[in-house]
Design goal:
This protein is α+β, with helices and mostly antiparallel strands. Helix content is about 50%, strand content about 15%. The chain folds into three domains: about 350 residues, no CATH class; about 200 residues, no CATH class; about 170 residues, no CATH class. The protein has 24 helices and 22 strands. The strands form two sheets. Strands 12, 13, 14, 15, 16, 17, 18, 19, 20, 21 and 22 form an eleven-stranded mixed β-sheet that branches. Strands 3-4-9-6-8-7 form a six-stranded mixed beta barrel. The longest helix has about 40 residues. The chain is globular and about 100 Å long. The two termini are about 30 Å apart.
């Protein structure tokens, strides 16, 4: 029987090649997109699960501060007092590249680094390719490098025992070579340094340096529990013994290792992070596109059934059961689904680079072959065929064979409303996607043109690498040389700039972003002192400023006797206007600007004249080569720098535009099927109207009016759904655009125009048909 179903299905597919082509094409593109989204979801949800102990590993968090930063000394307390803990380690992934020097010739490599304690290698799956001793770290001055880094630095030579210098200051010895971290690791590094060496504790200590009881050196604490131990019970026990962790943590929390990449709500983490909401959005889009393809198939199938009703009637007359007719339709839809799947998989393989650009990650096509993924895919194809075929099968098998053979019936009545409802659903989805794309793009433009609190026009950031001890003074020399140009209005040396603050210092037991800058910083960036006094040159090294948000946050009513006690202490003499030092996703928080030069400078901010930009850039480069020979030259304009913070949103807009276009195309196919059905059902009526003098435009209006009505219904349904959905998305931004009415109106008009163009093509063909042929239509 199955063989007969397949043979009949193949014959019907050959008999209706256009119908088959449209259905297969619609399914193939939908399956291609859905498979690409599936690959992306599998990749994103696999992060850190390659670790054999990932089920037993958690990261300790500071629940009160909602922070993943905890003093490294907590590790030893856990191991000493809580027997549930098998291993513990502290980790810091340095988010900026570290400068590594190799050889007397001074080969420099700027690459990512991690600082970990030795227990890291016992807890995490880090395959060691070669090592000098029984452990990866030989001593505090050891460095572990990845296989790729070893080849880049040493070629085919043995890397073990080779001497390197970190920042041209700290000598380290290669003690082990490990395999590169896999693509689905939230840890990324080329160099792993021993965090027991205080020189490699990258994060600045926070707290009052005059009060060591509040002074902390933050790391991320990872804990591996013994088998069958529950993290909830451990955390409850820790919080029941608060005195053990004082003054480091008031209330402890935890996050499983497998949840860190996608579900980390804490601040301060240095791991790579994904976006769980984005995954949910893409999963919904993939499912919706498949549903649209199924609806499209049903509409086109039913639209073609007028040509097959007699066949169905004859089969029922000679004894075919309703179950057999439904089985025939399911077999046909399953065969089309299977064909479309094979074509869709080939499309995915061919278009994989495009999808990788859209998702901004590498995708592994071969993962589809893995068990149980291959079984799930096969089951999905069968479900897709069943869902697509069972609806038309029920409709067709339910018609009275006597009426079919006598020519007195046609599929109509309530079943028309089902088909129209499916088309309404398709266009409602299209309207929602159009609205979503418009709002995402509007939000991007909104944040890009929002006032940052400082003048970013013609403002350049010149990156300063880590300098040798003897070259530390060259930064101020470079700034002085640059000011000699008539086209450079000002230049300021600082550690930290808006958009890239790397220093957090403690104030009242809170970690506050801090910029250390020279006396030209305020003027160069175009900031304003709104309370207190303007710093003078003589104040350098003695005073600091706080922003408006900090002034309010810490409850200041005046600046009398206000002091910032880090690094020996600074008098707070003024309040600077609020300025954005991170993206618009976060509100402006407290910040300090210290007028001092403690630590190294990592940037020179340069205010350029509006004219002669090209000539000025050549001067800056020439001056750099003169003052900083041998150091990498890197710069970026502030407006470009802040705009780059929204690359993920721009990729989202581009990806959603593609999905919206595909959804519209599939919806148009479904509407075209309904238009064909409507025209065929009313062929004789059209002929009679034309014989009686009806114009082409009148016939087209008659055929199109129902579609206009249903697109209107789709718009009414889609508007509140789109409004609610995009409001949820905008909640991720502290500063967001308004949902203007014209966006929804434009989306509705666009959907209406697309629908009219789709159905008018067939309506025109029906309206211009010879009325004699129409009257002969059976």
């Amino acid at each position: 029987m199955i063989g007969y179903y397949i043979k009949t299905a193949l014959r019907n597919m050959r008999t209706n090649p256009k119908f088959t082509l449209i259905n297969v094409a619609g399914f193939a593109f939908a399956i291609s997109v859905s498979l690409a989204i599936t690959l992306f979801l599998l990749k994103e949800n696999s992060y850190d699960r390659y670790n054999k102990n990932y089920r037993q590993i958690i990261r300790l968090t500071d629940a009160k501060k909602n922070s993943s930063e905890i003093d490294y000394r907590v590790k030893d307390i856990l191991l000493q007092h809580f027997p549930e803990v098998k291993h513990a380690c502290y980790v810091d992934c340095y988010n900026n590249s570290v400068e590594i020097k190799y050889g007397k010739e001074g080969v420099y490599l700027h690459a990512g680094a991690m600082s970990v304690d030795p227990q890291f290698f016992n807890m995490f799956s880090v395959p060691v390719l070669a090592q000098q001793t029984t452990t990866p770290f030989q001593d505090k001055n050891s460095v572990v490098i990845t296989e790729r880094t070893a080849k880049k630095l040493f070629g085919n030579q043995n890397a073990l025992g080779k001497e390197l210098e970190v920042y041209d200051i700290y000598p380290v010895t290669v003690s082990a070579v490990i395999k590169d971290f896999p693509a689905n690791s939230s840890f990324t590094a080329n160099f792993i340094l021993n965090a027991q060496n205080d020189n490699f504790k990258f994060k600045q200590a926070i707290g009052n340096s005059d009060d060591l009881s509040t002074y902390r050196w933050p790391f991320e604490i990872y804990v591996q529990l013994k088998k069958n131990e529950k993290p909830e019970q451990l955390i409850a026990k820790i919080n029941a013994h608060k005195e053990l962790l004082k003054p480091y943590v008031e209330k402890a929390g935890f996050l499983p290792l497998k949840d860190i990449y996608l579900h980390d709500p804490t601040t301060g983490g240095s791991n790579r992070k994904g976006n769980a909401k984005l995954l949910q959005l893409f999963a919904a889009i993939g499912l919706i596109i498949l549903i649209l393809a199924v609806i499209n198939y049903i509409n086109l199938t039913v639209a073609q059934q007028a040509k097959r009703t007699k066949e169905s009637g004859i089969r029922k007359t000679i004894g075919a059961s309703r179950k057999q007719i439904i089985g025939q339709m399911v077999a046909e839809s399953t065969l089309i689904s299977l064909t479309a799947f094979l074509i869709g998989a080939l499309l995915l393989r061919f278009m994989l680079p495009m999808y990788e650009i859209a998702f901004n990650t590498k995708l592994d096509f071969n993962i589809l072959y893995h068990f149980p993924n291959s079984i799930v895919l096969l089951f999905s194809i069968l479900i897709l065929g069943l869902v697509s075929g069972i609806g038309p099968g029920i409709v067709l098998s339910g018609i009275n064979p006597v009426k079919i053979l006598s020519g007195t019936t046609f599929i109509s009545g309530k079943k028309n409303y089902l088909r129209q409802s499916l088309t309404v659903f398709q266009f409602a989805i299209s309207v929602i996607l159009i609205v979503s794309v418009l709002i995402v793009r509007r939000q991007i433009q909104y944040v890009k043109h929002q006032d940052l609190g400082f003048n970013q026009e013609q403002l350049l950031r010149l990156d300063i690498p880590w300098l040798k001890d003897q070259d530390m003074n060259k930064t101020s020399v470079l700034a002085s040389e640059l000011k000699k140009s008539p086209y450079i209005k000002n230049a300021s040396v600082s550690q930290g700039v808006p958009g890239d603050i790397r220093l957090d210092l403690g104030y009242k037991n809170e970690s506050v972003p801090t910029i250390m800058a020279d006396s030209s910083f305020i003027k160069t960036l175009g900031l304003h002192i709104i309370k207190g006094r303007v710093p003078q040159t003589s104040d350098f090294g003695k005073v600091c400023l706080i922003n408006e948000a900090g002034y309010k946050h810490f409850g200041f009513t005046n600046l009398d006797n206000k002091r910032f006690n880090n690094y020996g202490g600074y008098d707070i003499i003024g309040v600077v206007n609020d300025f954005h030092y991170s993206s618009m996703r976060k509100p402006i928080g407290p910040a300090f600007i210290i007028l001092a030069s403690k630590g190294y400078a990592n940037a020179i901010s340069i205010r350029l004249s509006a004219n002669h930009i090209g000539e000025t850039m050549k001067f800056i480069h020439k001056t750099w080569q003169k003052v900083m020979p041998g150091y990498p030259y890197k710069y970026e304009f502030y407006d470009d720098w802040f705009n780059s913070m929204y690359k993920s949103e721009e990729r989202l807009a581009q990806t959603m535009s593609i999905f919206a276009l595909l959804a519209i195309v599939i919806s148009c196919m479904g509407m075209l099927g309904l238009a064909i059905f409507a025209a065929e059902r009313r062929t004789k009526e059209i002929g009679i109207r034309k014989v009686n003098g009806a114009k082409v435009s009148e016939v087209m209006a008659m055929l199109n009016k129902d579609f206009i009505k249903w697109v209107g219904v789709a718009f009414i349904i889609a508007t509140p759904v789109a409004w609610y959905t995009m409001n949820l998305w905008l909640e991720d931004f502290a500063y967001r655009t308004s949902l203007s009415w014209w966006i929804f109106a434009f989306a509705g008009l666009l959907a209406l125009m697309i629908a009219l163009l789709t159905v008018s093509w067939h309506s025109y063909r029906a309206a211009t048909q010879n009325p004699i042929e129409a009257l002969r239509y059976e």
